[in-house]
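Quick one, T. Sequence first:
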Amino acid sequence: MDLGIKGRVALITGASGGMGLATAKLLSEEGVHLVLSDLDQATLEKAAAVLPGEPLLLVADMTQQAQIDHLVKQGEARFGKIDIVVHTAGVTGAKGDPLELSDEDYQKAWSTDFFSAVRVARATIPAMRSRKWGRFVGITSENAVQPYWEEAVYNVAKAALAAFVKNLSYKEAAHGVLCNTVAPAFIESGMTDGMMKKRAEEKGVSFDEAVKSFLDEERPGIVQKRRGTVEEVAAAIALLVSERGSFINGSNIRVDGGSVQAVQN
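C-alpha cells:
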C-alpha cells in the first residue's frame, strides 16, 4: 500500500530501540528521509546499518531543550524540513509502592516520558504548521488507562503524555498537523525480556513458561497468548503519519492484543 509520504522527512527519537528502529525500517520503505536520534552514537550506527539510504544520525538528550533544538536544526539543514515526528524515547522508571518512591523517581520519568514530548513538539510543530502539513505521534502505553500499582511513575507520565497530545490535536489539525498516540502493551522488547527473565528466575521456570504464566495471570485480555511485535506497533505508527490516516486526529491507537479491557481509551 502506498502511504503517500514519499519524500517526507521523519524525526524518530529513541531510534535504536525496537519500536523506533522498526518504524524507521517501515518508513524508509515508503521513501521517507530519516533523522534518527538516541543517546549513543555507536548504538545508533549499529541500528542504522540495517536501513537503506543514508539516514542522519544524531545524538541528543531528550531532557534538554537546547539539544533537541539543535537536533531539529541539523535535520532541517540536511533535508530542508521535518514533516513527521515519531517520539518513542522513554524509560520505564523506578518501581515500587507509590508513596515510597522518591521525588527524583517521579521527576526522572516525568522529564523523560512526558516532558520530552513537550520539548520535541515545541521544536518541530511550529514549522509544520507554517507548511500546512505535519504528523506528530507519541508512544503512550496501556498503563496510561490501565495502571499497575507498582509502576506509578511510568503510569503518571504516560497518562500526561496522552493528555498533552490530545490537547495538541485540537488546535493543530486546523493547520494540517495531526497529533496522535499509540499505546502498545507487552511487546517483544528489551524491557519485557528483562521482566520475563526476572520472573523466570523468581519462579524457577523457563523464559517461555514465565511469559505464559504472566499472560495467564497478569494480562488475561491478551487472548492470543503471545507478546506483540515491534513491527505490529510500527504498522500502526506508519498509518498515523501517512496520507491514508488523514482523518485520524487526537486518537490513542491501542496495539495491545486486547490487554486493556475497558471500552474507553
